[in-house]
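Sequence in, structure out. Go.
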Amino acid sequence: MLKRFLAVIISTIIVSLGISLLNYVPLGQRESDVYYFGIGEYFLFASYIFFIFYVVIGLPISWLLDKYRKRLRTKPVVIQYCIGVLVYSLMGLLLGTVYHFALGSIQFNLNIFIETLGYWFTAAFCYFHVLWIFERRTIKKSQTSSLG
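Output:
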């Protein structure tokens, strides 16, 4: 469970930093009499929001998805990885769709819908990769300790 929580923290930082850099408006492109968030403000706001979603939604769903993925331990690592990427990505797209229609805008706007799906897909994709790295390191440590 500790590696999942660490994956949440690292994924939150990575995704929030990416979103804050993408949404930042340079000083030369700003209009007068309009307030623009700085990178730090975007980062803090995005971190807060993504951390809550990762903990409330991501951890329980990740736990359920990994129960399914444990059945695949007999398959080659490449197949495990591809299935994990596919399952986590589809779950991110599904949750992004649910979020958009449940809490999103009242009117359907294709640009906002695609942006919402992109955020959720990226968040799920990033979380999977951080968790995958932690799992691979744990497996390698257990294999080397059992050999020695």
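Check: The chain is about 80% helix and 0% strand. The chain has a mean pLDDT of 83.
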